[in-house]
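Input record (one chain):
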Amino acid sequence: MMSNIKILMTMKLRTIIGVAAVLAMASCGAPSETKLVTVGNPYLPLWEHTPDGEPYIFEDPDNPGEYRVYVYGSHDSMITGYCGRELVVWSASVDNLNEWRYDGEILRVFNDAEGNPLSSEGLSDVLYAPDVTEKIEADGTRMYYLFPNDMEYGRRSLIAKSPRPDGPFEVCNWSKENPAWTEGILEFDPAVFVDDDGRVYGYWGFECSYAAELDPNTMCTLKEGTEIIKDMISSSKSDGIFRFFEASSIRKVEDKYILVYSRVTHDGEFGLPSTNYTLAYAYSDAPLGPWTYGGTIIDGRGRETDEAGNVIASGTVAGNTHGGICKINDQWYVFYHRQTGTDEYARQAMVAPITVEVEKGKGGKVFISEGEYNSEGFSLNGLDPLEAHSAGLACWYTGPKVAVHEYPNNIFFGSYVASGYGTDDKFEAPYDLRNNTNPVVNNTDGSIVGYKYFNFDGTYGRRKLDLVLNLIPEGVDGTITVMADRPWASQGGIEVGRIDLKADMPAAPVDVAIAVPELAKMKGKHAIYLKFSSETKEKSICVLNTIKFK
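The corresponding structure, as predicted from the sequence alone:
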Protein backbone atom coordinates (compact mmCIF):
# COMPACT_ATOMS: atom_id res chain seq x y z
CA MET A 1 0.00 0.00 0.00
CA MET A 2 2.49 2.57 1.16
CA SER A 3 4.95 2.42 -1.74
CA ASN A 4 2.32 3.26 -4.33
CA ILE A 5 0.73 5.88 -2.13
CA LYS A 6 4.13 7.46 -1.64
CA ILE A 7 4.54 7.77 -5.42
CA LEU A 8 1.23 9.57 -5.72
CA MET A 9 2.00 11.77 -2.77
CA THR A 10 5.39 12.71 -4.17
CA MET A 11 3.71 13.70 -7.42
CA LYS A 12 1.51 16.04 -5.36
CA LEU A 13 -1.68 14.55 -6.74
CA ARG A 14 -4.34 17.21 -6.51
CA THR A 15 -7.65 15.62 -5.67
CA ILE A 16 -10.93 17.38 -5.15
CA ILE A 17 -13.40 15.25 -3.25
CA GLY A 18 -17.00 14.77 -2.27
CA VAL A 19 -18.90 11.55 -1.80
CA ALA A 20 -20.64 10.26 -4.92
CA ALA A 21 -19.82 9.76 -8.64
CA VAL A 22 -16.92 10.88 -10.78
CA LEU A 23 -17.51 14.04 -12.76
CA ALA A 24 -14.30 14.40 -14.63
CA MET A 25 -10.75 13.20 -15.03
CA ALA A 26 -8.13 15.29 -16.81
CA SER A 27 -4.51 14.57 -17.49
CA CYS A 28 -2.85 16.97 -19.97
CA GLY A 29 0.50 15.47 -19.06
CA ALA A 30 0.02 16.17 -15.33
CA PRO A 31 -1.29 13.99 -12.48
CA SER A 32 -5.01 13.38 -12.91
CA GLU A 33 -7.52 15.41 -10.97
CA THR A 34 -10.59 13.59 -9.74
CA LYS A 35 -13.78 15.45 -8.88
CA LEU A 36 -16.80 14.01 -7.12
CA VAL A 37 -20.26 15.40 -6.66
CA THR A 38 -21.44 15.59 -3.10
CA VAL A 39 -20.36 16.40 0.43
CA GLY A 40 -21.15 15.41 3.97
CA ASN A 41 -19.68 14.42 7.30
CA PRO A 42 -16.99 13.03 7.29
CA TYR A 43 -15.84 15.77 4.93
CA LEU A 44 -12.84 13.90 3.45
CA PRO A 45 -12.98 10.71 1.38
CA LEU A 46 -14.51 7.92 3.45
CA TRP A 47 -11.46 5.70 3.01
CA GLU A 48 -9.14 8.48 4.21
CA HIS A 49 -8.29 8.33 7.90
CA THR A 50 -6.81 11.61 9.13
CA PRO A 51 -7.61 11.97 12.83
CA ASP A 52 -6.30 14.66 15.19
CA GLY A 53 -7.02 17.30 12.56
CA GLU A 54 -5.80 20.85 13.26
CA PRO A 55 -7.35 23.45 10.91
CA TYR A 56 -5.57 26.67 9.91
CA ILE A 57 -6.19 29.37 7.32
CA PHE A 58 -3.05 30.25 5.39
CA GLU A 59 -2.43 32.18 2.19
CA ASP A 60 -2.29 29.98 -0.90
CA PRO A 61 1.40 30.05 -1.94
CA ASP A 62 0.45 29.56 -5.59
CA ASN A 63 -2.25 32.25 -5.60
CA PRO A 64 -1.21 35.28 -3.50
CA GLY A 65 -4.15 37.04 -1.91
CA GLU A 66 -6.27 33.87 -1.82
CA TYR A 67 -6.66 31.76 1.29
CA ARG A 68 -7.20 28.10 1.99
CA VAL A 69 -8.10 25.99 5.00
CA TYR A 70 -5.35 23.44 5.65
CA VAL A 71 -6.04 20.45 7.89
CA TYR A 72 -3.04 18.74 9.47
CA GLY A 73 -3.65 15.41 11.17
CA SER A 74 -2.26 12.00 11.90
CA HIS A 75 -2.62 9.34 9.22
CA ASP A 76 -4.18 6.02 10.25
CA SER A 77 -2.39 3.92 7.65
CA MET A 78 -1.01 1.21 9.95
CA ILE A 79 -4.49 -0.45 10.08
CA THR A 80 -3.62 -2.54 13.15
CA GLY A 81 -2.46 0.41 15.25
CA TYR A 82 -2.77 4.16 15.61
CA CYS A 83 -1.45 6.56 12.99
CA GLY A 84 1.37 5.94 10.49
CA ARG A 85 4.90 6.83 9.50
CA GLU A 86 3.82 9.63 7.21
CA LEU A 87 1.73 12.78 7.43
CA VAL A 88 -0.55 14.15 4.72
CA VAL A 89 -2.47 17.40 4.32
CA TRP A 90 -5.81 18.31 2.75
CA SER A 91 -6.97 21.82 1.93
CA ALA A 92 -9.96 23.75 0.63
CA SER A 93 -10.59 27.28 -0.52
CA VAL A 94 -12.25 29.38 2.17
CA ASP A 95 -14.83 30.19 -0.50
CA ASN A 96 -15.73 26.55 -1.22
CA LEU A 97 -15.63 24.16 1.70
CA ASN A 98 -17.31 21.46 -0.36
CA GLU A 99 -14.21 20.85 -2.48
CA TRP A 100 -11.23 19.45 -0.63
CA ARG A 101 -7.89 18.93 -2.32
CA TYR A 102 -5.33 16.32 -1.44
CA ASP A 103 -2.03 18.19 -1.14
CA GLY A 104 0.06 15.10 -0.66
CA GLU A 105 2.45 13.59 1.80
CA ILE A 106 4.24 16.36 3.70
CA LEU A 107 6.57 14.34 5.92
CA ARG A 108 7.91 10.80 6.16
CA VAL A 109 10.65 10.07 8.65
CA PHE A 110 12.79 7.25 7.42
CA ASN A 111 15.78 9.57 7.34
CA ASP A 112 17.10 12.68 9.01
CA ALA A 113 17.49 16.02 7.27
CA GLU A 114 20.85 14.93 5.81
CA GLY A 115 19.48 11.66 4.43
CA ASN A 116 20.98 9.42 7.09
CA PRO A 117 18.94 6.56 8.58
CA LEU A 118 17.25 7.48 11.83
CA SER A 119 18.47 4.30 13.43
CA SER A 120 20.84 1.47 12.69
CA GLU A 121 17.82 -0.47 11.45
CA GLY A 122 16.77 2.36 9.16
CA LEU A 123 13.31 2.36 10.71
CA SER A 124 11.00 5.31 11.13
CA ASP A 125 8.82 6.69 13.83
CA VAL A 126 5.10 6.51 14.15
CA LEU A 127 3.93 10.12 13.94
CA TYR A 128 1.10 11.23 16.22
CA ALA A 129 -1.12 14.30 16.42
CA PRO A 130 0.82 17.08 14.65
CA ASP A 131 0.40 20.81 14.97
CA VAL A 132 1.52 23.60 12.63
CA THR A 133 2.29 27.23 13.24
CA GLU A 134 3.23 30.12 10.95
CA LYS A 135 6.22 32.24 11.95
CA ILE A 136 7.72 35.35 10.39
CA GLU A 137 11.47 34.83 10.33
CA ALA A 138 14.10 37.49 11.03
CA ASP A 139 14.50 38.15 7.30
CA GLY A 140 10.74 38.77 6.93
CA THR A 141 9.93 35.49 5.19
CA ARG A 142 7.16 33.15 6.27
CA MET A 143 8.07 29.75 7.61
CA TYR A 144 5.72 26.97 8.62
CA TYR A 145 6.77 24.74 11.49
CA LEU A 146 5.35 21.24 11.85
CA PHE A 147 5.32 19.50 15.25
CA PRO A 148 4.44 15.81 15.15
CA ASN A 149 4.76 13.65 18.24
CA ASP A 150 7.17 10.87 17.32
CA MET A 151 6.66 7.84 19.49
CA GLU A 152 9.47 5.35 18.87
CA TYR A 153 13.21 5.00 19.48
CA GLY A 154 13.12 7.32 22.46
CA ARG A 155 12.68 10.47 20.40
CA ARG A 156 10.28 13.29 21.19
CA SER A 157 9.37 16.72 19.88
CA LEU A 158 10.17 16.17 16.25
CA ILE A 159 10.20 19.50 14.37
CA ALA A 160 10.14 20.13 10.64
CA LYS A 161 9.77 23.31 8.60
CA SER A 162 8.76 24.44 5.13
CA PRO A 163 8.31 27.76 3.32
CA ARG A 164 4.93 26.42 2.11
CA PRO A 165 1.94 25.37 4.21
CA ASP A 166 1.50 22.30 2.01
CA GLY A 167 5.13 21.24 2.39
CA PRO A 168 7.11 19.19 1.91
CA PHE A 169 8.53 19.66 5.42
CA GLU A 170 12.15 18.99 6.31
CA VAL A 171 13.15 17.86 9.78
CA CYS A 172 15.24 20.58 11.38
CA ASN A 173 16.07 19.49 14.94
CA TRP A 174 18.05 16.27 14.61
CA SER A 175 21.09 15.99 16.80
CA LYS A 176 24.17 15.47 14.63
CA GLU A 177 25.94 13.81 17.54
CA ASN A 178 23.09 11.37 18.12
CA PRO A 179 20.67 11.04 15.18
CA ALA A 180 18.36 8.82 17.21
CA TRP A 181 17.57 11.76 19.49
CA THR A 182 15.86 15.07 19.07
CA GLU A 183 16.18 18.10 21.31
CA GLY A 184 12.98 19.51 22.66
CA ILE A 185 10.27 19.40 25.29
CA LEU A 186 6.98 18.95 23.41
CA GLU A 187 6.59 15.34 24.41
CA PHE A 188 2.99 14.37 23.64
CA ASP A 189 0.29 15.85 21.40
CA PRO A 190 2.18 19.12 20.92
CA ALA A 191 0.52 22.47 20.25
CA VAL A 192 2.57 25.55 19.44
CA PHE A 193 1.42 29.14 19.24
CA VAL A 194 3.17 32.29 18.02
CA ASP A 195 1.61 35.31 19.72
CA ASP A 196 1.12 38.74 18.17
CA ASP A 197 4.32 39.98 19.85
CA GLY A 198 6.38 37.12 18.38
CA ARG A 199 6.70 35.17 21.62
CA VAL A 200 6.24 31.42 21.22
CA TYR A 201 4.39 29.03 23.55
CA GLY A 202 4.16 25.26 23.62
CA TYR A 203 1.52 22.98 25.16
CA TRP A 204 1.57 19.21 25.53
CA GLY A 205 0.81 16.28 27.80
CA PHE A 206 -0.85 12.92 28.39
CA GLU A 207 -2.99 12.76 31.54
CA CYS A 208 -1.00 15.76 32.76
CA SER A 209 -0.95 19.13 31.01
CA TYR A 210 2.30 21.02 30.45
CA ALA A 211 3.07 24.43 28.98
CA ALA A 212 6.08 26.65 28.54
CA GLU A 213 7.42 29.65 26.70
CA LEU A 214 9.72 28.47 23.91
CA ASP A 215 12.88 29.85 22.42
CA PRO A 216 11.83 31.36 19.07
CA ASN A 217 15.23 30.45 17.62
CA THR A 218 14.79 26.72 18.20
CA MET A 219 10.98 26.50 18.41
CA CYS A 220 11.35 23.46 20.67
CA THR A 221 13.44 24.35 23.71
CA LEU A 222 12.68 26.47 26.74
CA LYS A 223 13.22 30.20 26.55
CA GLU A 224 16.18 31.03 28.74
CA GLY A 225 15.13 31.95 32.26
CA THR A 226 11.71 30.26 32.07
CA GLU A 227 10.36 27.00 33.47
CA ILE A 228 7.86 24.33 32.44
CA ILE A 229 4.44 24.69 34.01
CA LYS A 230 3.17 21.28 35.14
CA ASP A 231 -0.54 20.62 35.66
CA MET A 232 -1.41 23.81 33.83
CA ILE A 233 -4.98 22.59 34.13
CA SER A 234 -5.97 19.72 36.40
CA SER A 235 -5.85 16.19 35.05
CA SER A 236 -8.46 13.45 35.03
CA LYS A 237 -6.58 11.82 37.93
CA SER A 238 -6.87 14.82 40.23
CA ASP A 239 -9.62 16.97 41.69
CA GLY A 240 -11.09 19.68 39.53
CA ILE A 241 -13.42 20.13 36.61
CA PHE A 242 -10.85 20.35 33.79
CA ARG A 243 -10.11 16.57 33.72
CA PHE A 244 -7.37 16.93 31.10
CA PHE A 245 -6.47 13.79 29.14
CA GLU A 246 -4.53 14.76 25.97
CA ALA A 247 -4.92 16.58 22.61
CA SER A 248 -3.82 20.13 23.41
CA SER A 249 -4.86 22.73 20.82
CA ILE A 250 -4.38 26.47 21.30
CA ARG A 251 -6.03 29.49 19.64
CA LYS A 252 -6.19 33.22 20.34
CA VAL A 253 -9.57 34.89 19.81
CA GLU A 254 -9.75 38.62 20.39
CA ASP A 255 -7.81 39.08 23.63
CA LYS A 256 -8.48 35.58 25.00
CA TYR A 257 -6.46 32.38 24.80
CA ILE A 258 -8.53 29.24 24.24
CA LEU A 259 -7.21 25.77 25.00
CA VAL A 260 -9.12 22.91 23.36
CA TYR A 261 -8.35 19.44 24.71
CA SER A 262 -9.63 15.90 25.16
CA ARG A 263 -11.46 15.67 28.47
CA VAL A 264 -12.31 12.59 30.52
CA THR A 265 -15.90 12.71 31.71
CA HIS A 266 -17.05 11.41 35.07
CA ASP A 267 -19.02 8.18 35.25
CA GLY A 268 -22.62 9.31 34.91
CA GLU A 269 -21.74 12.76 33.57
CA PHE A 270 -24.22 13.59 30.77
CA GLY A 271 -26.01 10.37 31.81
CA LEU A 272 -23.34 8.12 30.23
CA PRO A 273 -20.26 6.15 31.33
CA SER A 274 -16.85 7.84 31.55
CA THR A 275 -15.05 8.50 28.26
CA ASN A 276 -12.35 10.65 26.66
CA TYR A 277 -14.46 10.94 23.48
CA THR A 278 -15.20 14.62 24.14
CA LEU A 279 -13.44 17.89 23.36
CA ALA A 280 -13.66 20.60 25.99
CA TYR A 281 -12.18 24.07 26.31
CA ALA A 282 -10.63 26.41 28.84
CA TYR A 283 -9.81 30.09 28.45
CA SER A 284 -7.47 32.69 29.90
CA ASP A 285 -6.34 36.30 29.65
CA ALA A 286 -2.73 35.11 29.27
CA PRO A 287 -1.10 32.37 27.18
CA LEU A 288 0.06 30.41 30.24
CA GLY A 289 -3.01 30.92 32.41
CA PRO A 290 -4.58 30.90 34.91
CA TRP A 291 -7.39 29.07 33.11
CA THR A 292 -11.17 28.95 33.48
CA TYR A 293 -13.10 25.86 32.43
CA GLY A 294 -15.56 26.56 29.61
CA GLY A 295 -17.45 23.36 28.77
CA THR A 296 -17.89 20.70 26.10
CA ILE A 297 -17.46 21.58 22.42
CA ILE A 298 -18.24 18.18 20.85
CA ASP A 299 -19.10 14.70 22.07
CA GLY A 300 -18.18 11.96 19.59
CA ARG A 301 -20.75 9.63 21.13
CA GLY A 302 -23.57 11.67 19.61
CA ARG A 303 -25.57 12.07 22.82
CA GLU A 304 -29.28 11.56 22.22
CA THR A 305 -32.34 10.23 24.04
CA ASP A 306 -34.17 6.96 23.45
CA GLU A 307 -37.93 6.48 23.33
CA ALA A 308 -38.11 6.40 27.13
CA GLY A 309 -36.14 9.62 27.43
CA ASN A 310 -32.90 8.00 28.61
CA VAL A 311 -29.59 9.46 27.40
CA ILE A 312 -27.89 7.18 24.87
CA ALA A 313 -24.84 7.21 22.63
CA SER A 314 -26.30 7.37 19.14
CA GLY A 315 -22.82 6.97 17.57
CA THR A 316 -19.79 4.94 18.63
CA VAL A 317 -19.89 4.62 22.41
CA ALA A 318 -16.24 5.40 23.15
CA GLY A 319 -12.80 6.00 21.71
CA ASN A 320 -10.66 9.11 21.52
CA THR A 321 -10.94 12.42 19.73
CA HIS A 322 -8.67 15.36 19.01
CA GLY A 323 -9.12 18.59 17.08
CA GLY A 324 -9.31 22.34 17.10
CA ILE A 325 -11.51 25.30 16.25
CA CYS A 326 -11.36 27.61 13.24
CA LYS A 327 -13.34 30.59 11.99
CA ILE A 328 -13.91 30.38 8.25
CA ASN A 329 -15.47 33.53 6.84
CA ASP A 330 -18.10 34.35 9.47
CA GLN A 331 -18.70 30.82 10.76
CA TRP A 332 -16.87 28.98 13.52
CA TYR A 333 -16.30 25.23 13.32
CA VAL A 334 -14.92 22.52 15.55
CA PHE A 335 -12.80 19.93 13.75
CA TYR A 336 -12.56 16.51 15.41
CA HIS A 337 -12.58 12.81 14.51
CA ARG A 338 -14.81 9.78 14.97
CA GLN A 339 -14.15 6.06 15.19
CA THR A 340 -15.29 3.64 12.46
CA GLY A 341 -15.32 -0.12 12.30
CA THR A 342 -14.79 -2.22 15.39
CA ASP A 343 -11.53 -0.74 16.68
CA GLU A 344 -9.89 2.69 17.14
CA TYR A 345 -7.53 2.49 14.17
CA ALA A 346 -9.67 3.84 11.33
CA ARG A 347 -10.66 7.34 12.44
CA GLN A 348 -12.35 9.88 10.15
CA ALA A 349 -12.19 13.68 9.98
CA MET A 350 -15.39 15.36 11.17
CA VAL A 351 -16.62 18.94 11.55
CA ALA A 352 -19.51 20.76 13.21
CA PRO A 353 -20.59 24.42 13.24
CA ILE A 354 -20.33 26.20 16.59
CA THR A 355 -20.61 29.72 17.98
CA VAL A 356 -17.79 31.50 19.81
CA GLU A 357 -18.53 34.57 21.93
CA VAL A 358 -15.82 36.56 23.72
CA GLU A 359 -16.19 39.20 26.43
CA LYS A 360 -13.17 41.42 25.87
CA GLY A 361 -11.27 42.83 28.80
CA LYS A 362 -9.58 41.30 31.83
CA GLY A 363 -11.75 38.59 33.36
CA GLY A 364 -14.03 38.45 30.34
CA LYS A 365 -15.76 35.14 29.65
CA VAL A 366 -15.63 32.93 26.57
CA PHE A 367 -18.67 30.96 25.50
CA ILE A 368 -18.43 28.20 22.88
CA SER A 369 -21.59 26.31 21.97
CA GLU A 370 -21.58 22.52 21.80
CA GLY A 371 -21.51 21.26 18.21
CA GLU A 372 -23.93 18.61 16.98
CA TYR A 373 -22.74 15.23 15.80
CA ASN A 374 -24.41 15.21 12.36
CA SER A 375 -24.24 14.07 8.72
CA GLU A 376 -24.04 17.55 7.15
CA GLY A 377 -20.47 18.66 7.66
CA PHE A 378 -20.06 21.97 5.84
CA SER A 379 -23.52 21.67 4.19
CA LEU A 380 -25.12 23.86 6.83
CA ASN A 381 -28.45 23.97 5.00
CA GLY A 382 -28.66 20.18 4.97
CA LEU A 383 -27.74 17.43 2.51
CA ASP A 384 -29.31 17.40 -0.95
CA PRO A 385 -31.76 14.46 -0.93
CA LEU A 386 -31.56 14.10 -4.72
CA GLU A 387 -27.88 13.16 -4.57
CA ALA A 388 -26.64 9.68 -3.66
CA HIS A 389 -25.00 9.63 -0.24
CA SER A 390 -22.92 6.91 1.30
CA ALA A 391 -24.68 5.11 4.12
CA GLY A 392 -21.51 5.84 6.09
CA LEU A 393 -22.63 9.45 6.58
CA ALA A 394 -24.97 8.09 9.27
CA CYS A 395 -24.73 10.03 12.51
CA TRP A 396 -27.09 7.68 14.38
CA TYR A 397 -26.32 3.96 14.53
CA THR A 398 -27.67 2.00 17.47
CA GLY A 399 -28.65 -1.59 18.16
CA PRO A 400 -31.03 -3.52 20.40
CA LYS A 401 -28.37 -3.36 23.13
CA VAL A 402 -25.83 -0.66 23.92
CA ALA A 403 -22.47 -1.22 22.29
CA VAL A 404 -19.55 -2.08 24.57
CA HIS A 405 -16.07 -0.53 24.49
CA GLU A 406 -13.22 -2.86 25.35
CA TYR A 407 -10.08 -0.94 24.41
CA PRO A 408 -9.19 -0.77 21.59
CA ASN A 409 -12.30 -2.53 20.33
CA ASN A 410 -15.99 -1.67 20.11
CA ILE A 411 -18.49 -4.53 20.27
CA PHE A 412 -21.74 -3.74 18.48
CA PHE A 413 -25.04 -5.59 18.84
CA GLY A 414 -26.56 -3.63 15.99
CA SER A 415 -25.70 -1.16 13.26
CA TYR A 416 -22.28 0.43 12.84
CA VAL A 417 -20.23 2.13 10.12
CA ALA A 418 -17.70 -0.24 8.54
CA SER A 419 -14.21 1.08 7.83
CA GLY A 420 -12.38 0.94 4.53
CA TYR A 421 -9.00 1.89 3.09
CA GLY A 422 -7.85 3.07 -0.33
CA THR A 423 -5.55 0.11 -0.86
CA ASP A 424 -4.37 -1.56 -4.06
CA ASP A 425 -6.39 -4.71 -3.49
CA LYS A 426 -9.65 -2.76 -3.26
CA PHE A 427 -9.14 -0.01 -5.84
CA GLU A 428 -7.67 0.29 -9.30
CA ALA A 429 -5.17 2.73 -7.81
CA PRO A 430 -4.52 4.06 -4.33
CA TYR A 431 -6.58 7.12 -3.59
CA ASP A 432 -9.05 6.24 -6.37
CA LEU A 433 -12.30 7.91 -5.34
CA ARG A 434 -14.74 5.87 -7.38
CA ASN A 435 -15.43 3.51 -4.51
CA ASN A 436 -15.85 6.23 -1.93
CA THR A 437 -18.36 4.62 0.40
CA ASN A 438 -18.61 3.21 3.90
CA PRO A 439 -21.39 0.65 4.26
CA VAL A 440 -23.46 0.42 7.43
CA VAL A 441 -23.42 -3.20 8.54
CA ASN A 442 -24.87 -5.50 11.24
CA ASN A 443 -28.38 -4.07 10.83
CA THR A 444 -30.07 -6.42 13.26
CA ASP A 445 -33.57 -6.36 14.71
CA GLY A 446 -33.92 -3.27 16.88
CA SER A 447 -31.22 -1.30 15.06
CA ILE A 448 -31.70 2.32 14.01
CA VAL A 449 -29.65 4.24 11.40
CA GLY A 450 -30.17 8.00 11.12
CA TYR A 451 -29.11 11.02 9.08
CA LYS A 452 -29.19 14.65 10.27
CA TYR A 453 -30.20 16.39 8.07
CA PHE A 454 -31.67 16.42 4.58
CA ASN A 455 -33.05 19.65 3.11
CA PHE A 456 -36.36 18.97 1.35
CA ASP A 457 -36.93 22.47 -0.06
CA GLY A 458 -36.04 21.17 -3.53
CA THR A 459 -38.54 18.28 -3.39
CA TYR A 460 -41.44 20.15 -1.75
CA GLY A 461 -44.68 19.83 -3.64
CA ARG A 462 -43.55 17.06 -6.01
CA ARG A 463 -46.26 14.71 -7.17
CA LYS A 464 -43.93 11.77 -6.73
CA LEU A 465 -40.96 11.23 -4.43
CA ASP A 466 -39.20 7.93 -3.80
CA LEU A 467 -36.59 6.84 -1.29
CA VAL A 468 -33.96 4.61 -2.89
CA LEU A 469 -31.68 2.45 -0.74
CA ASN A 470 -28.84 0.50 -2.31
CA LEU A 471 -28.37 -2.52 -0.08
CA ILE A 472 -27.29 -6.15 0.04
CA PRO A 473 -29.90 -8.53 1.50
CA GLU A 474 -28.45 -11.04 3.97
CA GLY A 475 -30.94 -13.90 3.89
CA VAL A 476 -33.35 -12.71 6.56
CA ASP A 477 -37.01 -11.69 6.42
CA GLY A 478 -37.12 -8.16 7.76
CA THR A 479 -38.62 -4.69 7.53
CA ILE A 480 -37.08 -1.24 7.30
CA THR A 481 -39.43 1.43 8.66
CA VAL A 482 -38.60 4.93 7.45
CA MET A 483 -39.20 7.74 9.94
CA ALA A 484 -38.84 11.51 9.61
CA ASP A 485 -37.71 13.89 12.40
CA ARG A 486 -37.46 11.26 15.17
CA PRO A 487 -37.24 7.46 15.27
CA TRP A 488 -40.43 7.17 17.32
CA ALA A 489 -43.92 8.53 16.87
CA SER A 490 -44.08 9.17 20.63
CA GLN A 491 -41.36 11.82 20.16
CA GLY A 492 -42.95 13.42 17.11
CA GLY A 493 -41.53 11.08 14.48
CA ILE A 494 -43.54 10.58 11.27
CA GLU A 495 -43.60 7.22 9.53
CA VAL A 496 -43.17 7.83 5.80
CA GLY A 497 -42.79 4.30 4.39
CA ARG A 498 -41.75 0.68 4.85
CA ILE A 499 -39.45 -1.66 2.95
CA ASP A 500 -39.89 -5.42 3.25
CA LEU A 501 -36.92 -7.68 2.57
CA LYS A 502 -37.27 -11.44 2.01
CA ALA A 503 -34.89 -14.22 2.99
CA ASP A 504 -34.78 -15.56 -0.58
CA MET A 505 -33.51 -12.30 -2.11
CA PRO A 506 -30.07 -12.67 -3.77
CA ALA A 507 -27.14 -11.54 -1.65
CA ALA A 508 -26.08 -8.90 -4.19
CA PRO A 509 -26.32 -5.09 -4.33
CA VAL A 510 -29.79 -3.93 -5.33
CA ASP A 511 -31.68 -0.64 -5.44
CA VAL A 512 -34.88 -0.84 -3.39
CA ALA A 513 -37.32 2.04 -3.85
CA ILE A 514 -40.47 3.05 -1.99
CA ALA A 515 -42.78 6.02 -2.39
CA VAL A 516 -42.49 8.61 0.39
CA PRO A 517 -45.22 11.16 -0.46
CA GLU A 518 -45.25 12.55 3.10
CA LEU A 519 -41.72 13.87 2.60
CA ALA A 520 -42.86 15.83 -0.47
CA LYS A 521 -45.07 17.80 1.92
CA MET A 522 -42.10 18.90 4.05
CA LYS A 523 -39.84 21.91 3.66
CA GLY A 524 -36.46 22.61 5.16
CA LYS A 525 -34.21 20.32 7.17
CA HIS A 526 -35.45 17.00 8.47
CA ALA A 527 -33.73 13.98 9.94
CA ILE A 528 -34.35 10.56 8.37
CA TYR A 529 -34.19 7.32 10.37
CA LEU A 530 -34.22 3.71 9.20
CA LYS A 531 -35.57 1.27 11.80
CA PHE A 532 -34.79 -2.42 11.31
CA SER A 533 -37.07 -5.19 12.56
CA SER A 534 -37.08 -8.96 12.09
CA GLU A 535 -38.31 -12.14 13.75
CA THR A 536 -34.79 -13.48 13.31
CA LYS A 537 -32.89 -11.94 16.19
CA GLU A 538 -29.17 -11.09 16.25
CA LYS A 539 -28.72 -11.60 12.50
CA SER A 540 -28.16 -8.70 10.11
CA ILE A 541 -31.01 -8.02 7.71
CA CYS A 542 -28.88 -6.26 5.09
CA VAL A 543 -25.79 -4.22 4.34
CA LEU A 544 -26.71 -0.60 3.64
CA ASN A 545 -24.60 1.04 0.91
CA THR A 546 -26.21 4.32 -0.21
CA ILE A 547 -29.28 6.46 0.38
CA LYS A 548 -30.95 8.95 -1.98
CA PHE A 549 -34.33 10.27 -3.06
CA LYS A 550 -35.69 10.66 -6.57
